[in-house]
Amino acid sequence: MRHKTYDYIVVGGGTAGCPLAATLSLKYKVLVLERGGSPYGNRNISYMENFHIGLSNTAPDSSSQAFVSTDGVINARARVLGGGTCINAGFYSRASSSFVQDVGWEADLVNESYPWVEDKVVQWPKIAPWQAALRDGLVEAGVSPFNGYTYDHVSGTKVGGTIFDANGHRHTAADLLAAGDPNNLRVLLHASVHKIVFNSRQGRLKPRAVGVQFADEDGRLHQALLNNNKDSEIIISSSAIGSPQLLLLSGIGPKNDLKKHNIPVVLHNKFVGKGMADNPMNSIFIPTKSPPRQSLIETVGITEAGVFIEASSGFGQSPDSIQCHHGIMSAEIGQLSTVPPKQRSLELAKMYAHNKLNLPKEVFQGGFILEKIDGPLSTGHLLLIDTDVKNNPAVTFNYFSHPQDLSRCVYGIKTIEKILKTNRFAQLSPDGAGMERVLNMSVRANVNLIPKHANTTESLEQFCKDTVITIWHYHGGCHVGKVVDQQHRVLGVSGLRVVDGSTFSKSPGTNPQATVMMMGRYFGVKILRERLGQACGV
Length: 538
Known about the structure:
This protein is an alpha/beta fold. It contains 14 helices and 25 strands.
C-alpha cells in the first residue's frame, strides 16, 4: 500500500464519499474503500438510454444491488464507485433553505459547496417533449408560478438540472475525485468493509476507531489503519442501508440485537437502524397518440401540500436496450405497481420481463406522471439478518402508516387528475383517456391497477397503498442527536463519523443527490478548516 497508515479512511466511495475524500486529500492522506467496481467503461451506467438495464441486473457484481423491504416494495442500493449517482434518474435540485436551517448547517459554506459540485457534473437539460408537457400541464392545473430553469427549491413548477449531458452521457460523483490530490488519495475497488476496528484498552474513556477490516474481490481479508494523530478518523459514507448496517456489524447498536448475532458489543445505542423512511411514490400511466421520446426526470411541480409531481417517458433505443419497457417505471427494476406489495418479489419481476413480449404494444405507448410525498411521517427500522456485510439487512419503511402521508398521496393523485384535464394533455392523449379509464386500466403490464370504485376517496387511499413503489430516496438509521452529533461524530466513541443520507430525518429537496454530493464537500471543507484554519486554503 502506498501509505501504511492514513489520516482518513472513507468507507464507501459513493455520492457523499467521493467529494468528501477528494476534499480531504488536498491536505491529508486518504484511503477510500468502495465495495463495488468502476463506473467508467460501463455503458449501462454511462448512457441514459441504458438506465434501466443496470437497475434490472441482479448479478452479484452489478452496479445495483436489489433488496425487497419487509413492506414488499422492491428497492435498490448502489454498488459502484460514485454510488447512487451512477444508477439514478439524474435529476439535480438543491434542498430548501429551511432544510439547511433545520439540520444546522452553515448557509455560507453550503452556498459555496453546491457550486463546487455543479461546476463539475451538472448541466441544464434540453427538455424532452413529455417533460415540456408536464411543465405546461402543471402550470395550467395551478401548480404555479413557473420558475424557469433553477437548481433552487421553490414552490411552483420548474425545470431542474441533470447529471446527463446533451448526448445522454452520465456524469457521477466519481468524477469529483479528480478534484483531489492524487498523491494523497488512494481508492480501492471491490473492497468490502466487514467491520470497524476499535481500541478499547482499559483506562480509555471511550472506544476509539483505529482501522477497518475489509475483504478484496477474492475474499482475502485485509486491515487498513489510521495513523496515530488524535484527529485522524474513519468516516462511514455507505448509504442509509450500508452505514447503519456497518455500525451494527462493528458492535454499535441495540445490545440485544447484537447479541443475537454473537457480535461483541462495543457500544449500546438503541437508535442505530431506527427511523428508516422512504419517500413513497405512486404513478399513473398516460396513454399517448404516438410513442413519446425517452425522458427521465427534468420537470417538477413543488406543491404547498408537500407533494412533488414529476414524469418519465419512453424507452432507450440503443442496441443493448431492453425492448418494450417503461423506463423509470419498468417492472424489470422492481416497479411492480400492478401487484400488491406483499406479493412482490425479484422472481416476479424476472417473470414479467420474460412474458411481456406477449403484451399489446399499446401498453408501452405512453408516459407516466409520478407523485411522491415530501418528508414522510411514516418510519420503520433496519435489522441484521446475518453478519455477512454483502447481504442486505431487513428493512421496514411502514409506507402510509401515518394518515397524513396517505392524505398527501390522495392530494397528489387528484393533482394528476387536474393535469390530465388540461388542454396540453388533451392534445397528447387519445379520446376517452380520462382519469377513470387510466386508473382502471386492466392490463397485464406494469401499469397501475385500481379497484373499480375509483371515484371515491377510499379507493384512492387504497390505490396509494396497493400501488406504492419507490424512487430510491430512503434515508435514516443514523440520525443526528441519536447516533451522531451535530458534527456527524458517532456518539460514545471517538475517531468515527457518518457522512451520508443515513443521518437525515427527511430527504432533502425533491431529489437528494444534489445535497448529498454537496454534503460530502461541505464536511470535507469543514474538517479542513477545523484542523488547519485559514491555512487549509478552501
